[in-house]
Amino acid sequence: MPGDYAAPCWLLRQARQLLYPRRCPFCRRVLGFVPTCPECAERLEPLRRMPMRLKESEHYLGTLSGAAAPYRYTGCVRSAVLRAKYQGEPWTAVELGVEMARLLFGSEILMRGAEPTPQRVEGLSLGYDAIVPVPASSKKRGYNVPERMARPLAKAVGVPLAANALGRARTGRHQAGLSLDERLVNVAGAFRVLEPDNVDGKRVLLVDDVITTGATAAACAQALLDAGAQSVFAVALATVEFDALPSRSQPIAETAEEDEKEIEKT
What is the pTM of this model? Predict the structure, then answer.
């Protein structure tokens, strides 16, 4: 979002800290002016993915030029994403975006008051022209998690955030529990470009919270390419890891019920 890190917005967030102190996105401990949670470092390290780039043999990438995620979608990472999505914590989504900027792009994170702020990484803007978040599945939440994650990334990469460039042409079923074939059908034609000028001829960095099979990111990429984008590379905080690309007809062992149980524990 243009101006999101400008002085007026920053001052407003600092004032809000007096009532709602900054917390760790992974365990909810109050952090305040502490850059990262020392308690979560050991919990996060086993969840790291190296290399971070997703393999076509394990995920469906379609017309994406590639995709990457720094974490596996499990443990405290999964809990943080679920809180951001279902428990009204937009600040958690932003903090997770800061983590993405640090791990995916090597951005130095400096504290500006009580706010961790990614620093621009020189040279990254040579690879991308625009950052586009995957649109929310509904408007009930009041904010879009990938868009909040994309704000720190836009600052780190140094290119504009086209927050509303991509929208939903229709609402499909929830992807959880569907097979790969069902997921591909469910998202086929589900996205449309609302701001063609912001993607035409651009190298787009697509941002999502989680990549499971890759079907949603691939469908978004196809819509962007059809609207004239030059290329689309996708990033997410986390991904579901498979030993091989799932069978196209077998249901993916990930359900909405599991998510609800996880939320109840947080």
Answer: 0.89
